[in-house]
């Protein structure tokens, strides 16, 4: 099946620093990637939709200047948490939209997630 | 807004069958996903339904009724490793983004 990687898998940083998280589709091209955040025992909350070559679309309540998204190629999207604070500590997960020949009509493949802890 | 409802918790016995229901009221509909998520891990894809009916895939089956705004995930021959959270998600027409339910935590007991 399709593989999506995320790097780093976990990061601890000091308050006020910026953290970049990479999401890569390893064996397919993803014109659309999604960034989610998940707090403990809660469901996934969509933060933004990342489209290759265009600006990301942010969900209501998500600060675009704080969560910078760049979708530079068909296989890479990055999320940068700027000036991170303890309340930004969470599990960040990306997914890549794929339409596979011979497979399900459409699906989303999730990366393994990045755990961010801001001290 | 979007509204997706699924039970918070379910418990079942190893070897049994369990059905996890999901009802939805959304502003649009492209399809419905089911994902499995083990604690501390990212979700993994189980199924995607677009048309009404039952789709079977091994021990897991997923059913959709678009007219009723209803889906279920059926797990047969339960194994201990099936203990996880099961997420129902509706894919919206706009840009293909999905909105997720809160998930159903399934506990399989010996």
Q: What's a quick, concise take on this entry?
A:
The complex is a heterodimer of chains A (119) and B (110). With 119 residues, chain A is an all-beta fold.
Give the secondary structure arrangement, pairings included.
The complex is a heterodimer of chains A (119) and B (110).
Chain A: E1 4-7, E2 10-13, E3 19-25, E4 32-38, E5 45-51, E6 57-58, E7 67-73, E8 76-81, E9 90-98, E10 107-110, E11 114-118
Chain B: E1 3-5, E2 9-13, E3 18-25, E4 31-37, E5 44-49, E6 53-57, E7 60-65, E8 70-75, E9 84-91, E10 98-100, E11 104-109
Parallel strand pairs in B: 2-11
Antiparallel strand pairs in B: 1-3, 3-8, 4-5, 4-9, 6-7, 7-8, 9-10, 9-11
Give me some keywords for this one.
heterodimer, A: 119 residues, mainly beta, seven-stranded mixed beta sheet, 11 strands, globular, B: 110 residues, five-stranded antiparallel beta sheet
Q: Tell me the overall shape of chain B.
A: globular
Helix percent of chain B reads: under 10%
Beta-strand residue percentage of chain B: over 45%
Spatial extent as radius of gyration of chain A: 14 Å
Oligomer: heterodimer
The level of helicity of chain A is: under 10%
Decide which structural class fits the backbone of chain B: mainly beta
Summed over residues and divided by their number, the pLDDT of chain B gives a mean of 93
Order of helices and strands of chain A: EEEEEEEEEEE
Estimate the mean pLDDT confidence of chain A. 89
SSE order of chain B, one letter for each helix or strand: EEEEEEEEEEE
Q: Based on DSSP secondary structure assignment, what is the total number of beta strands of chain A?
A: 11
Distance between the termini of chain B: 40 Å
**Which geometry of chain A do the CA atoms define?**
globular
Gyration radius of chain B, in Å: 13 Å
Cα separation of the termini of chain A: 37 Å
Count of alpha and pi helical runs of chain A: 0
- Poorly predicted regions of chain B are none
**Main sheet: strands, sense, barrel of chain B:** 6 strands, mixed
- Largest contact between protein chains? A-B, 23 and 23 residues
Number of helices of chain B: 0
């Amino acid at each position: 099946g399709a593989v999506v990687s995320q790097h780093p898998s976990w990061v601890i940083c000091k308050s006020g620093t910026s953290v970049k998280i990479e999401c890569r589709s390893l064996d397919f091209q993803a014109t659309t990637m999604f960034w989610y955040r998940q707090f403990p025992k809660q469901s996934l909350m969509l933060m933004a939709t990342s489209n290759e070559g265009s600006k990301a679309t942010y969900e209501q309540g998500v600060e675009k200047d704080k969560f910078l998204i760049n979708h530079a190629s068909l296989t890479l999207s990055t999320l940068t948490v700027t000036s991170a604070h303890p309340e930004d500590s969470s599990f960040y997960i990306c997914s890549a939209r794929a339409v596979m020949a011979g497979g399900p009509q459409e699906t989303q493949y999730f990366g393994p997630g990045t755990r961010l802890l801001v001290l | 807004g979007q509204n997706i409802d699924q039970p918070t918790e379910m418990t079942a016995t190893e070897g049994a069958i369990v059905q996890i229901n999901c009802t939805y009221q959304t502003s649009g509909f492209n399809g419905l996903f089911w994902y499995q998520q083990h604690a501390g891990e990212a979700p993994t894809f189980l199924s995607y339904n677009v048309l009404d009916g039952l789709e079977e895939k091994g021990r897991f089956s997923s059913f959709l009724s678009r007219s009723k705004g209803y889906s279920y995930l059926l797990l047969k021959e339960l194994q201990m490793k099936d203990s996880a959270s099961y997420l129902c998600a509706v894919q919206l027409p706009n840009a293909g983004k999905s909105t997720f339910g809160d998930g159903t935590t399934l506990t399989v007991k010996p």
